[in-house]
Amino acid sequence: MALSSPGTGTSEATAAPSRPARGLLPLLLVGNTAMYALYIGVAGVLLALQVAEIDPAHKVANFGLIGGVSAIFATVFNPVAGALSDRSGRRNPWVLGGGLLALPAMFLLGLADTILLIMIAWCLGQAVMNVYQAAITSVVPDRVPVSARGRASAAVGLGLPFGSTIGALLGAAFSDDFRTGYLVFGAITAGAAVLFTACTREERLPARAPMPVRAQLAAFTAALRDHDFRWAFIGRALLVLGYFAVSAYQLYILQDHTALPEGMEPEEAVALLMPLNSVAMVLSTVLGGYLSDRFDRRKLFVGASALLSALALLIPAFSTGWTAMLAFSVVNGLGFGCYMAVDTALVTMVLPAAEDAARDMGVLNIANAGPQIIAPFIASVVVSVSGGYTALFLVAAVLSVAGALAVKPIRSVR
Q1: How far apart are CA 285 and CA 279, in angstroms?
Q2: pTM (two decimals)
């Protein structure tokens, strides 16, 4: 999974339409919901259970290795697929191809019976899903006018909490039948891809030549030389690192750290926690965006929401009770939802140059994807060395505090 900022595709549309096509925004919601349902249901539930079943004693290290290596595939295939779809001037064939290939990838994952085979199958799954993600993310700048980008971004952004809830519920429902569960998630994604491409018309855009590697590196360093953008980049990277270091291990935390109510299984607990987290995230996303606009204060809300995420991480660090995990899920959802909504607005205000906005937002997405590569490795090392999850919560809280402090040096935004 490569978390991305809504509406920041791989390229900028050359001729934006006057208004989005009828039905496009609901289809974007469906397409993104299906994608996040697979990411959460597979990586957050079924994959973790499958790894634990094969080698319970080394599940933390094995899961960290699989997560880290597969995230590299995600980070590589996302921009590559985006560049290839740029060259073709089309998005629908890439959405359809990536979505349909999710089904055989999930079938192979269900057949895997060793850690190595699980890693290979999930890397393939990440590869095809990021082909799908890169193309469907690029639909917004291609087909939605600037005046409707807010609504389109909301449709894309709501896919995360909706998809997370569906993924957690289905993951729990198929926790005793990995193969069927994987096929269900693959079928949902394939169905969403068919629906999206069948119901949306696409005009071929002028093909764009790919940017040479040297030019891409120069663009990356040029953006980070800007003082305010650099600090926004650092803050996002730190918070995302802390968030995914914990969220990737949620099932194992519930297995080995949390004292669940009698009779409750860890996967059932995930199915309860994720909807709570998602509802809190939706509420804080809407409210945080509205209040930051009303008071014209971005740094205040970004810093406060990052500190709220840090506070949330301290709750399960000092208490192993089920009530503590419920409180953590709600408070963490409030903090992360508000942060992502307002920080995205803040970043658009500190872009180094308006003419390079799409490119620089792509640079920002490295702060989303990069930490997801190293988060599983860091988390597995912290848990293995400390012998438990308390240290992981504390490390993630420190990262969140550092993310809050990173917005203070930004000068051009209040």
Answers
A1: 10
A2: 0.82
Cα–Cα distance for residue pair 237/117, rounded to 1 Å? 31
Mean pLDDT across 328-354: 85
CA-to-CA distance for 262 and 260, rounded, in angstroms? Answer: 6
Residue ranges covered by each domain of the chain: 1-9+22-203, 219-414
Alpha helices in 112-226 (DSSP H): 115-143, 149-157, 159-173, 178-199, 213-224
Helix (H, G, I), strand (E, B) or coil at 259: strand
Which of the listed CATH numbers 1.20.1250.20, 1.10.3720.10, 3.40.800.20, 3.20.20.70 matches domain 219-414? Answer: 1.20.1250.20
DSSP 8-state symbol, 212? P
Condensed to tens digits (0 to 9), the pLDDT of residues 31-49 reads: 999 999 999 999 889 999 9
Residues 6 or more apart whose Cβ sits within 8 Å of residue 233: 223, 224, 363, 364, 366, 367
**Rg, Å, the chain Cα set:** 20
Contact between residue 236 and residue 368 where contact means Cβ atoms under 8 Å apart = yes
pLDDT tens-digit map of 266-281: 999 999 999 999 999 9
Task: Please tell me the least confidently modeled range out of 18-27, 100-109, 129-138, 233-242.
Answer: 18-27
Helix axes 322-349, 227-247, angle to 10 degrees: 160
CATH classification number, 1-9+22-203, choose in 1.20.1250.20, 3.40.50.1000, 1.20.1440.170, 1.10.760.10:
1.20.1250.20
Q: What does the pLDDT look like over 94-127, one tens digit per residue?
A: 999 999 999 999 999 999 999 999 999 999 999 9
Three-class SS state of 261: coil
Cα within 13 Å of Cα(101), Cβ side = 19
Separation of CA 249 from chain center: 15
Q: Extract the tokens encoding 38.
A: 């697979």
Q: What is the dihedral of CA 238, 242, 244, 245, to 10 degrees?
A: 130
Q: Which run of H or E residues covers position 233?
A: helix 227-247
Q: Which are the contacts of 388, defined by CB distance < 8 A and separation ≥ 6?
A: 256, 257
